Each structure stands twice: as structure tokens, then as C-alpha cells.
Description:
Blueprint: H1 3-16, H2 22-56, E1 59-60, E2 68-69, H3 73-79, H4 82-113, H5 120-133, H6 137-146, H7 152-159, H8 174-184, H9 187-198, H10 202-210, H11 215-243, H12 247-252, H13 266-276, H14 280-304
Antiparallel strand pairs: 1-2
Helix pairs in contact: 3-14, 4-8, 4-9, 4-11, 4-13, 5-9, 9-11, 11-14, 13-14
Amino acid sequence: MSAIGELAxxxxxxxxRPKPSPAEQGDNKAALVFLAPWFAGLAxxxxxxITASLYLSFTDYSLLDAPEWTGLDNYIAMAGDPRLFTSLxxxxxxxxVSVPLQLAAALGLALFLDRGLRGLPIYRSVFYLxxxxxxxxxxxxxxxxxFGNAGLINQILALFGVEGxxxxxxxxxxxxxxxxxxxxxxxxxxxxxxxxxxxxPRHLYEASAIDGAGKARQFRSVTIPxxxxxxxxxxxxxxxxxxxxxxxxxxxSGGTGGPIDSTLFxxxxxxxxxxxxxxxxxxxxxxxxxxxxxxxxxxxxxxxxKYWVFYDD
Length: 313
């Protein structure tokens, strides 16, 4: 068939296609109407404030006066701010210690619940509950009571004749109490781990058992490799959440960063600069630095995942 004949056949095919009905044509319009509130919220609540904070990071803004353009002064000032580096050290310690411990606790409990216990939905709900309440002020206040000088922990130690320290008031222990707090909120990754364990084919365990593999070898050679995508997902998600931790540090430390700034989280220092000292321009620059840090670590995690995450295709 010549090129002219093929073109004519193509035109006939298009002409023979039935035109969409008015109802079908209106589907797109209806979808846009229902999506309009979401797009409005995205523009007004997300994109707008992000753009404004980027502008404010280059200004001197006290919330009371109009912002005054200062260029890179805020970013230069951050390079010489000792408290900012203290907050980074505290935050990185918190993230790199609490997140692995949290994921280990979540995976261990998921393995226990995967054994087919009676009343599994009840146990799953009970263990998931701390994740729902972990960022609340009420639970943070309760945590402060537990680790206070006359709190529950010291009362239990007193039964054995041990005088407990001031967990929150002592700089050597204050950050540890917040790390334990974050580990305690393992419910969310636990549920995800449990769902991942349920997706591992049982015949792989049966085949490995026939080959003589014990429980430990099955865990290393079957469970962990097939669970690496779930581990990676939880690692990225919980790392981002840990960098954004604020409520527990603010309430447990009384909003002061704890003894000698031992619990001065980056977000707590950002809040202090923006709303206590009214250095909103400087706080905006700090917020963008936090965004860069989280984005960089997430990119590193994605790059490193090529060497240890196994996708069963």
C-alpha cells in the first residue's frame, strides 16, 4: 500500500471512531471541580508558605516590622552560630541512635506477632497505639512524669534500694529519655513489617528447612533479603520523621533545650529563633537548611539501596 493509501486508511479509522458521549466529556470537568479544593489547598497551604519562607530566608524579619532584604546574611550567620551546631549534633545523635533501635524493636515484635497468635488484631492495635499518640502533648507530659525526679522509674528503682538520677535534669541522660520515647513509638513500622512478613511465600521457608537451614539461617537468608524493600521504606520514612521531632523535646525539656542544651533539637532551636527571639528570617533560613539535610540523607539512602535492597521480580 502506498503512503497516500495508508494515510487515507488512517483518516477513515479516525472518522469511524465513535465520538465520546456528553456524559463522558463531562467526566473531566467533574473531576476538576472535585479536585479544585485540593489544588487550592496545595497552593495556599503548601506552595505559598514554602515560597514565602524562601523569600524570608534572605531578609531580616521580626514578625512585627516589614521584612528587610539582607541577601545571604542569614546563611552566613548560621556558619558562625555555635548553638546551631549543638542542635545539629543533638539531632543527628537522636536520629542515628533512635531510628535503628526503633526499627529493630518493630521488626522483632512483628516477627513475634507473625507466629499466628490468637487475638492478633487486638495485639496489633495495642502496639500501634503509641504511634498515634507519640507526638501528642499529653503523652509527652506523661513521659516527663515518668522520668521526673519522683517519677515512676525512680520509684521502681527505690524498691531495690537504688537512688535514680534526675533523668530529665541530667545532661548525660536527658537525650536518652527522648531516644527511648521515639523507640517506644514503634507501632507504625511494626504494622508495615508485619504486612511485609505476610507477603513472603511460605514455600521458601519449607524449601530451606528441607535443605537443613535452621531458624537463624532462614532469618538471614530468606526473611531479611525479601524484607529489605520494607526495611528501606521504614528507614527513609522514620528518618524524616525523626528529623522533624519537636513536641516531645519541647514538652519534656520545658522548651529550653534541656540542661546545657543536651536536648536542643534543631526544630526546637528553629522555633526558639523564630517565635521567641522573633528572628523569623533566620528561622526561615534554618528551615531550608533542614530541608537540604533531609533531602541529602534521603538521596544517600536511595543511592545506597542499590547495594542492599533486594526486589523480587
